[in-house]
Write a structure and sequence with these properties.
The chain has 372 residues and is α+β, with helices and mostly antiparallel strands. It contains twelve helices and 16 strands. α3 crosses α11. It is elongated and about 110 Å long.
Length: 372
């Protein structure tokens, strides 16, 4: 009875009666490991089996490609930080849009006065009005009366470029439907619609206002506080006459202002430290506040407060721009550089205490604003 028997002797095989191929000859087919079924992978014991297999692989020296590198590497840390930063920005943008939807908008009459056909990417002209509109709860005088335009600023904004032109509030202007007088009276007489028509007629040279932004004194301090305040540097001291029952004083040098202080600084008209100052000095102080806001927006410190600032920014404004338009305007301001603001300077005194601006100065100012 033939019996096949193999015995390993010094690494070789001894053959019995029947010849057989050696066991070390590889078969002419491939072996594949099947994946566990979905049912097995979802079973309670599947996780334990995986842990056992991993432990066995480590014990047998599993290949590096099959081991998961859990070490904390700089590249991995940077990647996680970038993802967190993008998520934080996404939350801030969502908060900004919600706040813009809830914020008070410009009146329909004001929107009808504006010229269309512009883009905040290629270029738009925005009329920015610093209104002293205040709630009746304030103790300041004038809260019961019509709001006044304490500052008048034209901004030509496009992506990567921002140009600004400040019009002094005492400039003598023709106001449609009313007698010629100081230009800021147009806001008290007919609100934003009349102010838009007055500014376009005052400057002439085919200037058209595409959008309007009104900054309210009521909500402006909360926006500054959401940024953590602003920093200003003064070449000379500032000391105001009493307004709102208080005087405002700042010495020369560097200062960090909260929202209430920034508002008071922007509103100082008569400076006891420099009695010869006129409204141009006031316009420069307002421009300094705007530049300081831009610098604060670019500060790493503000990044941590971005959702709060995103909530407060639309609430400090009344505008025809929706959430997307406001966001584009802020992007233009941030990317447009600090630049400088031109002030439309008077050429002489007008009736009463008004100021006369020559037609030649108006034409040059409009050309510089529009970049033509």
């Amino acid at each position: 009875m033939p019996i096949t028997r193999r015995a390993r002797t010094a690494g070789r095989y001894t053959r019995g009666v029947r010849d057989e191929p050696p066991d070390d000859r590889r078969p002419e087919y491939r072996l594949y490991r099947s994946r566990p079924s979905l049912r097995h992978r979802l079973s309670p014991g599947a996780g334990l089996d995986r842990l056992r297999r991993r432990g066995g692989d480590k014990g047998r020296g599993a290949p590096a490609s099959r081991r998961r590198d859990r070490r904390l590497r700089p590249g991995r840390v940077v990647g996680w930080l970038a993802l967190l930063a993008l998520a934080w920005i996404g939350v801030s943008v969502a908060v900004f849009f919600v706040s813009a939807q809830l914020a008070e908008r410009a009146s329909p009459e004001a929107e009808e006065t504006l010229s269309g056909g512009s883009s905040l990417v290629t270029g738009s002209t925005i009329l920015v009005l610093g209104s002293d509109r205040r709630s009746r709860a304030t103790s300041e005088p004038g809260a019961e009366g019509p709001a006044r335009a304490d500052s008048i600023l034209l901004v030509r904004a496009s992506f990567g470029s921002v140009r600004r032109l400040s019009i002094l509030r005492d400039s003598y202007a023709d106001i449609p439907g009313h007698a010629p007088q100081k230009i800021n009276a147009a806001y008290a007489l007919g609100g934003t619609p009349l102010m838009v028509r007055t500014v376009e007629g005052f400057l002439g040279n085919e200037l058209r206002v595409n959008h309007v932004v009104e900054i309210s004194f009521d909500d402006f301090p909360a926006f500054i506080d959401s940024l953590g305040g602003i920093d200003v540097t003064l070449e000379r001291c500032v000391s105001s006459d009493p307004f709102g029952g208080r005087r405002f004083r700042l010495r020369a040098g560097d200062h960090h202002l909260n929202g209430r202080q920034a508002l008071a600084f922007a509103r100082v008209r008569k400076n006891r430290c420099s009695p010869n100052e006129d409204d141009r000095a006031r316009a420069r102080r307002q421009q300094l506040v705007l530049s300081s806001i831009r610098s604060r927006l670019l500060s790493p410190f503000t990044f941590a407060r971005l959702p709060l600032a995103s909530w407060q920014a639309p609430r400090a404004l009344r505008t025809d721009l929706g959430g997307a338009g406001l966001l584009a305007l802020f992007a233009d301001v941030v990317t447009g550089g600090a630049g400088s603001t031109s002030v439309l300077r008077p050429s002489g005194a007008g009736p009463g205490t008004s100021l006369i601006v020559s037609e030649g100065d108006k034409q040059r100012a409009v050309e510089a604003l529009l970049g033509s």
